[in-house]
Amino acid sequence: MMDKNNNKNPRRNFIKNTGLGMGGVILAPSLLSFTEQESVNIARDNKKLGIALVGLGRYSTNQLAPALEKTKNCRLSGIVTGSPSKEKAWKKKYKLPDSNIYNYENFDEIAGNEDIDIVYVVLPISMHKEFTIRAAKAKKHVICEKPMALNAEEAQQMVKACKDNGVLLAIGYRLHFEPFNQRVMELGQQEVFGKVKSIKAVDNSNMTGGSLDLWRLDKERAGGGPLMDLGIYCVQAAIYTMGKPPVAVRAKFGEVTHPAYFRDVEQSITWEMEFDEGVVANCEASYADEEEKNSLSGKAEDGWWKLEPAYSYEGKKGETSNGKMEFPNIYEQVKQMDAQAESFRNNQNPKTPGEMGLRDMKILMAIYNSAKKEGTRVEITY
Ligand code: NAD
User: Cα separation of 167 and 163, whole Å?
Assistant: First the structure.
């Protein structure tokens, strides 16, 4: 049977270049590489696309799988796990057939599974590259969690593997689909209160007091500490406020007051992102803040705004110099996965593509580079 796109080969199609498709953020020309590219076609007559979650940790269990019971464009159709007990529990809870359950060894057999269109990588960061590339080779579109990889070289290889295999790659940047953060994108990028003058972004949690045996505290698996895990939200927030990436950064590691926890990764870090025309975003990420603060604020020529909390799953609040922001708190992961599935179905570059993840990895690496050199200004080339 011919598919809706009337191609000679029903599994291949061309990816449409959406141009400004990054949440209104204008892409640098080097990021626009998905022009007229051959891709795997999963038009599927408007059926829900099947997603396999790889890694059944906290985020998959508490956010993504429940979200996939509410999505319109996609559904949970498979799992990939290293744990036989999770296999059993998930199989029962989500009524998954044995044929859609994989482990890390036999994962590549997913290639022949027509029930699975999208692989969602929700593993420790050191495993993102391997599973994204294996998924691409299996001709599945990929969603990869943040941060994309351990470093920019890995991110580059992931983008290339997806391109070479004709699949699309999206990063799980859920806040691009969330009304409070979308409003900040408008306020900043459309200069609603005039030109942006300064930005402040903070994302702190508290990892002290709990287990010492966590991948997030292990440099080999996490790539770094709070900058990688939380600071990425601040990097993203500053960029989507400005609508463009920074030209340079300066950074400093914070003091280590909990040495048992922070032998391997930084406890905290502060950094500046410098945009052209001199606008500076002051940012902070910590794993040792008892208050677990997270916020995003901006000052412009004729007004200001502030979200607090800005990045938590729930309970966002926002205010501008004109008054309270009135938006509903939504199930972000539902909106995110529905939008990403829709882009995959239409062979369109997703709003938060692999190239965006790669750009951000370059920025994170520049921030570490500067911190290692005691705050030296590091310019970034994209
Ligand atoms: P987690 O520790 O709860 O889960 C990790 C999963 O990977 C577990 O199922 C674990 O068994 C499995 N795993 C396989 N090999 C492992 C190894 N060598 N070491 C440790 N675990 C191993 O982590 P999480 O919080 O679910 O995070 C997973 C990914 O999702 C990370 O990239 C994280 O940044 C991302 N995440 C994103 C958001 C978001 O809001 N977008 C929120 C939370 C986590």
Answer: 6
